[in-house]
Structure formats: structure tokens, C-alpha cells
Write a structure and sequence with these properties.
By secondary structure, the chain is an alpha+beta fold. The strands form five sheets. It has a six-stranded antiparallel beta barrel with strand order 2-11-14-13-12-15. The longest helix has 29 residues. The two termini are about 80 Å apart. The N terminus is likely disordered.
Length: about 350
């Protein structure tokens, strides 16, 4: 009974051992199975160029006016809208200042009374019915009344707020019906055609910037770099950020507007760098690689890229000067594949 149970198991075990001891056949290599690739290569060279470091900044208007009220009053009208162009003298806001009007009416009445008193005292002085001192006191009251009228008229004129120059309404900070008080901004006006870039430059770079320098500025909405002129450099650093405020005047450019993000290139010392055409860089996942051509064979190299110079890319590591890298048909290559250079 026991012998009959072990006999089938013994046969299966022998079959498995025979399969395990079977000699494996040759596995074809992927590299050897791929045909030679037609590619174009270039020699990696070291080029010396003026290095720059970019500092971020903000585009702002050179002329920016914050409109405030000089007297308190309810805003009766605010007949302007965002983006509207206004000319010097145009009405921006009208305030309700009836108490100032009442003060003016009172000052005019006192002036009229003082003028009549002075006329009467002048006749009395001729008749020697009053002294010179009494006449001088009445004359002084008239001068005070006249000054009060001028003051009230000036305060009343502040109820009409007008544009100081030809500008554009950039921000509205109040609406009709709000209470305007001295020191509270109502509007912000800007000149959209006269722009500048304001950047906070680190103290390590501020020594490389001088008044009158022409630096390259780039923004997202302008397709080509802009040349800005340094017009202001802060004499002292901000205590919190350790940066210096630098302002560069910008020429007119299509698409350039106040409030946009920009970068200014601060020149550094010239340094050599290895450069290759951008087509030589192959991105696979998180890796950047190039293929070095040696003895008509492609060798994969991991590289680290740096700055871009037009259609060329700086290679910080991974290759050496004099080596040849593949710049055409590199994306489909494999490590060890045969090459046919053009």
C-alpha cells in the first residue's frame, strides 16, 4: 500500500529535476539586435562668456499719483472708471461740503460788515470823533475778515478733486457715497507708457551695478529682451532682506504693463562652460542624458544641465571637452548601439 503511494510522486520529482537541469539557449542581446543608427555628432567645446545672475523685480509706472481728499465730505460723484484716460483738470470726484459753504457765507458777511465799519470810522476820523487807534482796530478786523473769506474759498475749492496730469486710472479705492477724509486714498493714477523695473538686488551683487548701466530685462509678455537703464540705486540696504532697491527705466514695448513680473540680468565675471546644442539632451523621466559617440558606438551618459544660451545648453557635469555627442536622432538610441555618423 505504501509502495503504491510513493511511486507516482517519485516519477513527478524525476521529471522536475530533468527540466531544471536543461541547458539554457543563447539570449539575443538588444543592442546587438538593433541596426546601426544614422546620427550627427558635434564636439563638446568649452566657451567663455559673460555670466549673469537674474534678479526678479516688478514693472511699475514712473509716474504714480495717489489722489486723496484735503477736506472731509461725502463723495457725491466719482465719474471715472478703471483704465480711463484723464487729462489735467478733469473732474475725478466731487465732495459734499455744505459746512464749508456755510463758513464761507459767514466769512463774506463779516467782511461786508467790517468794510462798512471801516468806511464809517474813516469819516469819524476826519471829524476827529475817534482816535487813530480805534480806526486801526477796525481796519485790522477787515483784514482778518478778508483772510477768512480767502481761507473758506480755498477749502471749498478742495471739494472738487481734479486730475493733476494726463494719466490713466489704475485703481479705484472708493465709490460714490463713501466718506472722504484727509489721508484716505480715493484713486491711483499712472502713466502706462513710462515704465520702469524695480528690483531688490542682494548685497553680493550690488557692487556690480552703477548708475547709467544698461542691463537686460525679460518679461513673460514681451517676446524679446528689453534693455533697461539704471536710474536709481538705493544707498542703503533693507535691514530685513539685505537687499538694495534698484530702478531701471524701460523703453516702450508692446505687451509691457505695470504690475508684471520681470527679471534683470546682473553681469558677473566671464567663466568658461561646456555647451552642446539643446537637441543633444534627451529627457527620460527625471533624468537628463546624452549619448557620447566613441568608436562608432553610442554610450549613455547622465548629465546635469545649467543655463541656456539661445539654442545651446550648458553641461555642468557628465561630459568632458573634446568628446563627441549625438545631436540628431538621439531620442531613439540605446546604450551600446552601433552608430553611422554623418
Amino acid at each position: 500500500m505504501k509502495a503504491n503511494f510513493l511511486s507516482p510522486l517519485t516519477g513527478l520529482l524525476a521529471l522536475a529535476l530533468t527540466a531544471c537541469h536543461k541547458e539554457p539557449g543563447p539570449t539575443p542581446s538588444r543592442e546587438t539586435s538593433l541596426p546601426p543608427a544614422n546620427v550627427r555628432t558635434v564636439v563638446v567645446t568649452a566657451e567663455t562668456s559673460a555670466a549673469v545672475e537674474e534678479v526678479i523685480g516688478t514693472v511699475r509706472s514712473r509716474t504714480r499719483v495717489v489722489v486723496e481728499a484735503k477736506v472731509s465730505g461725502r463723495i457725491e460723484s466719482l465719474p471715472v472708471s478703471l483704465g480711463q484716460r484723464v487729462k489735467a483738470g478733469d473732474l475725478l470726484a466731487q465732495l459734499d461740503v455744505r459746512e464749508i459753504q456755510a463758513r464761507l457765507d459767514q466769512a463774506v458777511a463779516l467782511r461786508r460788515q467790517a468794510a462798512r465799519d471801516l468806511e464809517r470810522f474813516a469819516n469819524l476820523l476826519k471829524q476827529e470823533a475817534v482816535t487813530q487807534a480805534e480806526y486801526d482796530a477796525v481796519e485790522a478786523r477787515l483784514r482778518v475778515a478778508e483772510a477768512s473769506v480767502v481761507e473758506a474759498e480755498t477749502m471749498l475749492s478742495y471739494a472738487r478733486i481734479v486730475a493733476p496730469a494726463d494719466l490713466v486710472v489704475a485703481r479705484k479705492l472708493a465709490e460714490a457715497g463713501d466718506l472722504a477724509t484727509p489721508g484716505r486714498p480715493l484713486l491711483e493714477l499712472e502713466d502706462p507708457e513710462a515704465l520702469r523695473l524695480e528690483a531688490d538686488v542682494p548685497e553680493a551683487l550690488i557692487g556690480r551695478i552703477q548708475l547709467g548701466d544698461r542691463l537686460t530685462v525679460t518679461t513673460a509678455n514681451v517676446g524679446q529682451p528689453i534693455i533697461g537703464t539704471v536710474v536709481e540705486v538705493a544707498p542703503s540696504a533693507d535691514a530685513a532682506s539685505r537687499t538694495f532697491r534698484v530702478k531701471l527705466d524701460l523703453p516702450p514695448a508692446s505687451g509691457l504693463r505695470a504690475g508684471q513680473f520681470g527679471r534683470v540680468a546682473v553681469p558677473l565675471d566671464a567663466t568658461p562652460s561646456l555647451r552642446v546644442p539643446a537637441a543633444a539632451i534627451v529627457v527620460r523621466g527625471q533624468m537628463e542624458i546624452v549619448f557620447v559617440a566613441t568608436n562608432q558606438t553610442a554610450h549613455l551618459r547622465l548629465v546635469k544641465t545649467g543655463r541656456r544660451f539661445g539654442d545651446q545648453v550648458e553641461l555642468v557635469s557628465g561630459v568632458s571637452p573634446g568628446e563627441r555627442v549625438v545631436v540628431e536622432n538621439a531620442t531613439g538610441l540605446c546604450d551600446g548601439q552601433a552608430l553611422v555618423s554623418q
